[in-house]
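S1.2 Input.
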Amino acid sequence: MCVIIEIMHKLPEDLYSLHHFERPRLQKLFAKAALYPIVVVCAGAGYGKTSAVYDFAKEYGAATAWIQLSDRDNVSARFWENYAHAIAQFNQPFAKAIGKSGFPDTEDKLNQYVSMRNELLDSQRPIIILDDFHLIDNSAVIHFVEHILLDLSRPSTFFLISRSFPSNIAALTLKGCVFSITEDELKFTQMELDEYFRKQGLQIQKQMLNEIMQDTGGCAFAVSFIVQSYEKAPGYAGYLQNAMKSNTFQLMEYETWNSISKPLQSFLICLSLIGHLAVDLISLLADGDKTLISEMEQQNAYVRLDRFIDAYLIHPLFLEFLQKKQELISEEQKQKTYKISGDWCAKNGFRMDALAYYEKIADYNGIISIFFEFPCQIPHDIANYALGIFERAPEKVFEEVDLFAMVHVRIVMCLGQWDKAFELIQHYEKKFSQMPENDRFRKRMLGCTYYCWGMMRAMMCTKEDRYDFDQYYVKHEECLLRLSIDSCPMSNHPIGPWASLVGTSRKGALQEYIDALTYSVRYTSKCLGEAMTGVEDLAQGELYFYQDDIRAAETFIVQALQRAKKQKQFEVTHRSLFYLMRMAVLRGNYLKTEQALKEMETQLNYDKYINRYITYDIGVAWYYYILDLPEHFPDWIKENFAPYGHVSFIENFGNQMKMRYCYLTKNYPLLLSYMQEQKQRESILFGRIEMLAMEACVHYHMKNKALAYAALKEAYETALPNDILMCFIELGKDMRTLTASALKEPNIGIPSDWLENVNRKASSYAKHRAHIIAEYKRANHIEDGISLTPREVAILTDLSHGLSRTEIAASQNISINTVKMAVNIIYDKLGAKSLADAIRIAVDNKII
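S1.3 Output.
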């Protein structure tokens, strides 16, 4: 991995003029350190930690990444924006991918980050430097850094520059993976000090050298100042020695501050307000005054232009010196600095800093413009940070700034604070309703309030058996239809694992939801344009799919796909392809299964599709679930279940695949534990039935028939009112075995005709799935020896000779059901769809 972060305050290579002076002792020390995966450079301020590492990295010649950390990086979203922005300097695809995916604040996202890194970064061995690591106390950022430090699978050397030893790498230290460089190694020895002064052309008497060594302790910063100031204040004794002992800032005042122009003084103080010193931003802040910039560049003891990152660098101590003088500039100068910097940050992807700068100058329109660059489901850390901005905003802002109230509600919804969101919506409805009736702002804000209300009411369908969200979309349209502006800059409507959000099993509820959704789209399309295109067709096709009406399902889902593709509705497109892949499996069509997955992959090309990597991985996981190849699941799906969010959130979609991974790998304790937890929460009907059906099969595998039948009965009773069958069918041979066993039990409370129907359809599904597995192996030249038992060979031989199942049962003295079961097993093993297919495959493999 190679990371290049814009270095805000990294030490310039000529700050101390130490790069002209080689210290063989340090060169050997750093050469040894580079053999270790982790190097900790730990010392107090002024010991030349950064300078020493910088010089070593330059001499070493490896690809080097420098991450300069600051207090602001304790906001994880801000840290991540810097991280992604820097990566873009050498790897645009990876930078875009991680930038869109957001800070990895969950194990799922962290594993997704690793997957993207492994896919998009090359295998070179870089040096990665994290400077001022002691400033970081945000647990999420520390956890991410810990993760990349602990991941020794990719060759690299990490340098942690810190004023204190990081406690979170103790385990690695014990393993011998950490090399430490301390103050004792960094400080000048008296011999090195003498040689350094001589190379600077300074003749220092031995007694004076002893005094300097005693006063400075060999500290590089102090030594540098003595050299810089020696000619202006001849001799060490007197002012120079006293200033060194009393206050380093006095030296800065004497050495630099008093000799620069007033305009440059003000300009440097303005720069101390912000955290970005890119060349183009500095030019904007200087109003293009080249003379001012030239004078600043002459102060190369503290400020330096680094063309490697195209940014100016200010030494941390000089920055602190400047920050203590911020009261010397006017409020107007501060406002101008924050405004220009906020606009630049917004344009260049530093959205968290843009939000901070805009809030400082009360530019709430600027703040709103930032939020429509985020996905509909605003990442939790960003939403949590932003909530403070909205809570601090004066009341008049909500009455004057376009969309401010709507974004406030959206943030609270993304944090899962539903009661608070409902209170806010009611509050804003009342507030805006009291404005003059013909006021355009009133109509627009009421329209947006009703849009949020409709979205929240739709999400509440998981808990409540009420489908009135369409009424709010109608009100939304009534407020906005006559305006010549859009209701809000919304381009994609959010969709979770299922298009339907119905939680109840009441008969007809699913169709009522779809009818309300269809009615909603009819109205929102007049204001939102393409934002909900195809979602109603997807929901209708989804219902038919789960009812096993595949022909009707395909009609609606293909229509949804065509409409969604045309309008670039990525979520609807993905879900449509997801269902088409599942239908291809139902029919045993390997080519169409492959085609659906390949079409999902094409969506990776759309940068605006925020969730593209997550949803594609989910498609990949389902594909390999069908092929019974859990080892090929994306790595993050193999990890623990993601923390609970609303069932419609994307994390829940990932958890659906994690369930299937646990199922394939027979990790039943973890799977049952997760299922038990989910039963305590609200759930979408389709997901709840799938979970219960899978739970029944798990208990049967664990030889607990009583629990298996109980779970199957609950699944049956939940599915029956709306004729849901697909949740059972897609469990294939496991459901076939379970229902066959249940048919022998007279008192389990499930009708035999239902069990027989599911058994027959699950058996057919198992055959088609086995056929797809066989086709996959043939297409990929995977040789898999087919092994039939002697009884299975005898039965297949009899079938090839034209005997009926009844005749085979009589001739082999077994029951007809045993013959039927053996035939199903034969089909599974051979990947056959029919008897003719089974005989052909057996002959080709010389089994019969």
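S1.4 Remarks. The first strand starts at residue 38 and ends at 42.
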